[in-house]
Amino acid sequence: MREETGNAGHEDEVEATWELSWRAGAVGLAALDVEDAELLHGWRSDPETAHQLGVWPRPLTALRERVERDIQDDDRDDFLVIAPDGAAGGTPVGYAALTGQNIVSGTAHVEVIIAAGHRGRGHGSAGLDALVDLAFGELPMYRLTAETHTDNAPALAVLATSGFVQEGVSRAACLHRGRRHDLAVFSLLRPEWEAMDRPRAWDA
């Protein structure tokens, strides 16, 4: 949930705060709101991010409509990754989602995007760990999957650090700007998560 607060005596100054839906040690997760579409649009428009996602930047109005539809989708949960840096409500540093949730089979897909100005600070691993803890600790998931370009070294490292195992490569599975790219396919199973020796989100 996003709230807008104005500073007393400064009506033109508006400060956004985010209510955390899921708290973890290094970051928190706040449910994505339609008003957060502008943030997400800026992150997705970054050339490096667009390349790694294999997407064209969409108009803000189209992305806003998509976010509004996704919020109503019971088979996914979308969040802002919030870093508690001392600012009121923290600072949004990225996006995380648990999509394609199938409660019967216990499967879902994870996605994480970290804003260009906040990379290299551990937010990707922290956000992914928080999302994994939500999937296995609060939801009845048994298997999580993730995909990324085979040349996306930072994402490959984050997935490996969070315990994901590479199952293989989907060859030429992504077309972006006239070129085909291979996708590395990862998974993490509940028993593997249970065997991890790391604090869980609820231990923060």
What are its keywords?
single chain; 204 residues; alpha+beta; globular
Question: Secondary-structure map with pairings?
Answer:
Layout: E1 2-7, E2 10-18, E3 22-23, E4 28-31, H1 37-44, H2 47-53, H3 60-71, E5 77-83, E6 91-102, E7 107-114, H4 123-137, E8 143-149, H5 153-161, E9 165-176, E10 179-189, H6 190-194
Calculate the terminal CA-CA distance, rounded to whole Å. Answer: 21 Å
Q: Write down the overall mean pLDDT.
A: 86
Question: Unreliable segments (pLDDT under 50, ≥5 consecutive)?
Answer: 5-14
Backbone shape: globular
The largest sheet is: 8 strands, mixed
Number of helices: 6
Q: Strand order of the main beta sheet, please? A: 3-4-5-6-7-8-10-9
User: Which structural class fits the helix and strand makeup?
Assistant: alpha+beta
What does this structure look like?
The protein has 204 residues and is α+β, with helices and mostly antiparallel strands. Helix content is 27%, strand content 38%. It is built from six helices and ten strands. The chain has helices at residues 37-44, 47-53, 60-71, 123-137, 153-161, 190-194, and strands at 2-7, 10-18, 22-23, 28-31, 77-83, 91-102, 107-114, 143-149, 165-176, 179-189. It has an eight-stranded mixed β-sheet with strand order 3-4-5-6-7-8-10-9, with helices on both faces. Strand 9 and strand 10 form a beta hairpin. Helix 1 (37-44) crosses helix 3. It is globular. The two termini are 21 Å apart.
